[in-house]
Design goal:
(rape) hypothetical protein, leucine-rich repeat, Leucine-rich repeat, LRR (right-handed beta-alpha superhelix), 391 residues
């Protein structure tokens, strides 16, 4: 039985029970919510192992936020009564085990929740096509359907949800053609994530249309873009860019001075150019991209995380790495490095905690002198990836 005392909580407005590993049916058998807790406006039960069907949800008529993420709900134990929550603004059913849209469109009737502003169904096992009825939720600001098994086309009608700020269809299996021009009316869009696991989605990024939004995050790998989208030239507020392809845009980092995360892995970019002056970038993953400017440490002194693995780096490392005094993670594995590490690296990078050097040609004592006693460093050096601590 889960929380039988709730039946007497007449003035309760917020119920927050995160990560308690509560299991079993909820509500407890014989426990009536109805009029006793009608005042609840926020109901957060994520990170538990609940199996019930929540039939009493229909009594929570003032509910505005419902978070049932990270439980074990599936199509056999549906969450009932959602359609009665007319004031609901945020619904999170992510990381459960839903497989079909039948329950969500039918018994759940999510598309009838016209006040809904945030909907997160990510990390389930949803199959089938994008439900067009979702485009009738004209107040939606957040729509996250990522990490499911959805197929079919991405409907152009998604551009009719003009209030959208966050759109993630990432890590599904969408196919066919989709034009970014469909999003031209989404002037408030800040986050755009779209990808296809089978690489069968063709995204059109050029046209006569104009995209007025200023993105903070763009992640559109495996979309067969062909070339870098021209609209990125006009983006000035990017914080995260994930796996673009083509000729590296020399203007990308100069235009976006607040860019923090740049993921370039497996890109084979040509003509990679660092910005003209020092940049605020915090994380750079350029693994398997054949990129390694020798002045990287001077231009990107604020890096915390740098992955340069699988880049065919040969010989000695440049001394500019020692200028990255805030860096705590450095991956140089799977290259052709030999000799000793530059003194500037071991002495200058005093925040470094993890250093991966495996699968190189380094032998013997790779440090030019004993490490400073101010820190301990976890190092992966052996061919097999053995881990050792050097203090």
């Amino acid at each position: 039985m889960v929380l039988p005392f709730l039946s007497s909580a007449k003035s309760l407005t917020t119920l927050f029970l995160r990560g308690n590993n509560m299991d079993g049916p909820f509500p407890a058998k014989g426990l009536l919510f109805n009029f006793l807790i009608q005042q609840i406006v926020s109901f957060q039960f994520f990170l538990n192992i609940l199996l019930g069907s929540f039939p009493e949800l229909k009594y929570l008529t003032n509910l505005e936020l419902l978070d049932l993420s990270r439980n074990r709900f599936d199509n056999s134990t549906p969450v009932q009564g959602l359609a009665d929550l007319r004031k609901l603004k945020a619904l999170d059913l992510s990381r459960n085990e839903f497989t079909g849209w039948g329950q969500l469109q039918g018994k759940f009737r999510i598309c009838e929740l016209k006040n809904l502003q945030e909907l997160d169904l990510s990390h389930n096992q949803l199959i089938g096509e994008f439900p067009l009825c979702l485009t009738s939720l004209t107040r939606l600001r957040v729509l996250d359907l990522s990490s499911n098994q959805m197929t079919g086309k991405v409907p152009s009608a998604i551009g009719s949800i003009e209030s959208l700020e966050y759109l993630s269809l990432f890590d599904n299996d969408f196919r066919g053609f989709f034009s970014l021009g469909s999003l031209a009316n989404l002037s408030n869009l800040k986050v755009l994530k779209l990808s296809s696991i089978s690489n069968s989605l063709q995204v059109e990024s050029e046209g006569s249309w104009k995209l007025d939004f200023q993105l903070h995050v763009i992640a559109i790998p495996s979309c067969n873009l062909g070339k870098l989208p021209h609209f990125l030239l006009h983006q000035k507020e990017l914080r995260l860019v994930d796996r673009l392809h083509g000729v590296f845009p020399f203007w990308l980092m100069d235009n976006n001075t607040n860019l923090e995360v740049l993921l370039l892995q497996n890109n084979l970019f040509t003509n990679f150019q660092l910005p003209k002056s020092a940049h605020r970038l915090l994380l750079l993953d350029a693994s398997a991209s054949q990129l390694f400017p020798h002045d990287i440490g001077w231009i990107l002194p604020n890096l915390r995380h740098l992955n340069l693995s699988k880049n065919s780096l040969q010989g000695n490392l440049p001394s500019s790495l020692g200028n990255m005094k805030k860096m705590y993670f450095l991956d140089l594995s799977h290259n052709v490095l030999y000799g000793k590490l530059p003194r500037s690296l071991t002495m200058g990078c005093y925040s470094l905690m993890f250093l991966k050097l495996s699968h190189n040609k380094l032998r013997g004592n790779i440090f030019p002198e004993p490490l400073p006693c101010r820190y301990c460093l976890w190092i992966i050096t052996s061919f097999q990836g053995g881990l050792e601590m050097v203090c």
